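As a next step, we paired sequence with structure tokens, yielding the entry below.
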Amino acid sequence: GTTSNAFPTECTSSAQHQHRNNKFAFLAKPCWAPGRISHTIVIKYLYDTGKFLNEYLKQCKEQDVTYASLSDQDDELWYRPQRQQNPPTITRECDRDRLLDELHNCDYSVTSAMQKVHLNPTYYLTLWSYAEKNQFDAGSRRYCGSLRMVTKGVPTKVEKEIVDYHYRFKITDQFRRYEEQKREQAQRMMVEADARLRENFSVRKGGEADSGLILGGSIAGATGGNGFSSGSGGGNTQKKLRNITSIGATEQRRHVAQDYLIHVRDVIGSKHYLRLVAVLKRYHEGDLDVPLLIEHITNLLQNSPNNPKEAEALVPKFLTFVPQIFRSDK
């Protein structure tokens, strides 16, 4: 007739929809109300609860307390020595989510929340015994860090707790050990650099400490990409030297030598310049001493087929790169 089943069908659909909302209503429970409490009071609440929980942790003989900072922005710095000397109050063992949730459940009454924390402190802590830690480590080694498999080896913990422990404790500890290794490596490099510095810049017998390497390390930079190099030369001298004064003087001499060699190549030509490079290389390999080096370079510059007058004028400048004792006779 004129009636239909639309209304009952609509009522049934609405009832099912309402039932579905009630079924999952617990999932939409609010966990924080913005503006109900100031950030300063929250920090003070975490400070006070953390201080109490720290004292409780000291009574747990199987617990190794690892300090972490209150600020998330400073978490990566917790492992540094200054943090160990003046540790913050909140530890990684403290469950901040539960502390804040308790504050919310107590209608943001700090006093009420503190009372509940004092009644059941273990609820707000992530506590692992030495046996559980050893089981976790053994499982990690056996299953190559597969947390699902590691869970089977720790019967007293569920997979959620395994994942939380891995990312809250183990990852941070590994990063701390990595940073310590890098710091030790840097210290060793500093010691080696200082030793190399004293060796390379010590006064040689015969007064050969003035310029020492004599244009070493500058040939490669002056070849203009033609692929010529001076072998070992002064390149080894510059490796990670940390003395600022000595480095400044060395780099300054090196840049002056590069400019000089570039000018020599432009004056005498690339073909004749290769002969000069070969002479310098023989000196650095030990085949020539300083007097022979001066003789060979002087002859090359004075007998240059290109621009002979300008090339001969380059000899006095070259002598400034040799030790003072060998310049006196010139």
